[in-house]
Write a structure and sequence with these properties.
Helices cover 30% and strands 19% of the residues. By secondary structure, it is an alpha/beta fold. The chain folds into two domains: 291 residues, Rossmann fold (3-Layer(aba) Sandwich), CATH 3.40.50.1820; 96 residues, no CATH class. The protein is globular, with a radius of gyration of 22 Å. The protein starts with a helix and ends in a 5-residue tail after the last helix.
Length: 432
């Protein structure tokens, strides 16, 4: 009898050991804390870390380093290791309330200041007096305990960011003295949806490289997807002119070609996207999925370059492996996310936009619109991607409500109508 009990105890310990290790690897104590006037309009910021060996140093494009004054101070360096992330606390985070805590997750090239506190500035000229505040202030004033993450890499690996999202929830539970049924609600914008979906779906276990990541612990009640690539995107492969613009203006953005003829020289870009480790994980072949090339994609060589860029090939202008090869190399993440769906316990909401021109270029008397025009979009993301409900509900998760607003990709986190929808989702007003 004693032998049987020993065997059972051994099996229980053995089977739960990976989870115990994962919990222990997150260091639930800040390495640094900033507060006071320098973190305004946030109340304070913590730098937190995870000792899991799966976290690696990710390469940075020079234009994608942590340039915000306070973020540099909080991270200590401009190119922080992926094991670090920042947790931002909004004013009033510790007040007694029955409202569920809210965790805000920023998109690519952004951070918690820009996305949620002063969305019209990457760095506000006067952080204590912001004339156009963001969702953080909006929700805080309505009594929500609000938190936000800033990831170490603005284009980082979405699986590593999913782990940091899980760690952020652990930390919030700790500081709020949460019990066994503790939950947060998540609002994610753009690329931030990838980290949320990876955690809420539990697809990490399907990858040898990521099977150490914390599985979903049913500690999220609601998730609001704002301008989110629910079925992926294909921008860098769809537009040759996009690649030239990135080169010309030295923009910190991914590019599809492996080689590109530029200013009379052949530029080697084979390892260029290593500086954007999370971008290929968001790719989807929209041409196969029914969104054909538009005139924006046409090239002067009878469209040979257009097809080579997207499907793979070499022309006098570039060489490309094609979008399908990039999707396969990245692990077919969008396809797996859509096949698995969110955990059935999660309630989801979707907010999307349809203003295609996000900017314009003045050429003489004409204004040339800039934005995604091949199909209905928010200027960055196809509406068919942002509204892809079945990719969330495959396992029974309920889509509680959706809304489409005539605004662009960034407008969805600043317009009063958008903020009202988000708060309505969090409060339950928007439930079907």
């Amino acid at each position: 009898m004693k032998k049987n009990i020993t065997v059972v105890l051994f099996l229980l310990v053995f089977l739960t050991f990976p989870a115990i290790c994962l919990a222990d690897n997150f260091i639930n104590k800040p390495a640094a804390v900033l507060s006071g006037d320098e973190t305004a309009p946030w109340a304070k910021i913590e730098r937190l870390s995870d000792a899991s060996p799966g976290f690696v140093f990710e390469k940075f494009h020079p234009k994608c380093r942590q340039a915000h004054t306070i973020l540099k101070k909080a991270f200590v360096v401009e190119e922080p290791h992926s094991k670090y992330f920042l947790l931002h606390y909004a004013p009033g985070w510790d007040k007694k309330t029955e409202k569920t805590p809210v965790l805000l997750v920023h998109g690519a090239g952004s951070h918690a200041f820009h996305s949620w506190a002063h969305p019209y500035y990457m760095q506000a000229p006067d952080p204590k007096n912001i004339d156009k505040p963001g969702l953080m202030q909006f929700l805080s004033q309505k009594g929500y305990p609000v938190f936000a993450v800033t990831f170490s890499h603005p284009h980082g690996d979405n699986f590593l960011q999913a782990q940091q999202l899980a760690n952020a929830i652990t930390r919030i539970k700790t500081v709020l003295n949460g019990g066994p049924d503790f939950k947060v609600d998540i609002v994610c914008h753009s690329k931030g949806a990838m980290a949320a979906r990876i955690y809420l779906s539990g697809i990490s276990c399907e990858y040898d490289k990521y099977n150490w990541i914390t599985p979903f612990r049913k500690d999220v009640g609601k998730v609001v997807f704002v301008a989110s690539p629910l079925k992926g995107l294909d921008t860098s492969y769809r537009y040759y002119a996009y690649c030239l613009t990135v080169m010309l203006k030295d923009i910190g953005a991914p590019m599809a070609p492996e080689q590109l003829v530029y200013m009379g020289s052949i530029i080697d870009l084979k390892n260029y996207n290593d500086k954007f480790p999370g971008q290929d994980q968001m790719l989807h072949n929209w041409v196969k999925d029914g969104i054909a090339f538009s005139t924006q994609s046409y090239t002067i060589d009878m469209n040979l370059t257009m097809h080579a860029l997207y499907s793979g090939g070499t022309t006098a202008l570039l060489s490309s492996g094609g979008i399908d090869r990039a999707i396969e190399k990245a692990g077919g993440v969008i396809e797996k996310l859509c096949a698995k769906g969110l955990d059935a316990s999660v309630k989801a909401y979707i907010l999307a936009g349809t203003k295609q021109d996000i900017d314009n270029i003045q050429i003489g008397p004409w204004k040339i619109p800039i934005g995604e025009m091949a199909d209905s979009s928010d200027g960055v993301l196809f509406l068919k991607s942002a509204m892809h409900k079945s990719g969330l509900s495959a396992r029974g998760a309920v889509i509680q409500d959706t809304k489409i607003i005539k605004t662009h990709h960034v407008g969805l986190i600043v317009l009063p109508e958008a903020l009202d929808f988000i708060e309505g989702a969090l409060s339950g007003r928007n439930n079907n």
